[in-house]
Structure formats: structure tokens, C-alpha cells
Amino acid sequence: MRPHSEQRQGTGATNGKDKTSGENDGQKKVQEEFDIDMDAPETERAAVAIQSQFRKFQKKKAGSQS
Predict the structure, then answer these.
(1) 3-class state of residue 22 by DSSP
(2) How distant, in Å, are the alpha carbons of 51, 55, 66 from that of 63?
(3) Integer Cα distance of 48 and 50 in angstroms
(4) Exposure of 32 by Cβ count < 10 A (0-12 exposed, 13-18 middle, 19+ buried)?
(5) Which of 39, 43, 56, 60 has the fewest C-beta atoms lying within 10 Å of its C-beta?
């Protein structure tokens, strides 16, 4: 993965009333290229770990709602 050179503005904490910083985020779509070897074993292990954590999160979320 290539390092991300541009920093996003307006990522600081806001009081919820200031909409100028994130107002145009939905309108401006930037395509980013990623150089990830999808066949690499470490990529597969990372994907499995991410999916596992997401499933745990979903289970916990479903359990707390009932």
C-alpha cells in the first residue's frame, strides 16, 4: 500500500453545528490506487482477521439490541 500524502482537512472534533468542513465530502469522489498483492498469504491472513473482528462486532451489536 502506498502512503497517503494528502491530509484531510476538518478531521478535528466539532460541536456538530459547523457543516462547512465536511459539507462537500460526499460530492467530491477521489479515486485512489492501491498496490496490494491479493494473492499474498499475509493479505489473506489480514482479511480473515478483519472479517473475524467484524463478525464479533456484529454478534455483540445484535446481542445488545435484544
Answers:
(1) coil
(2) 18, 12, 6
(3) 5
(4) exposed
(5) 39
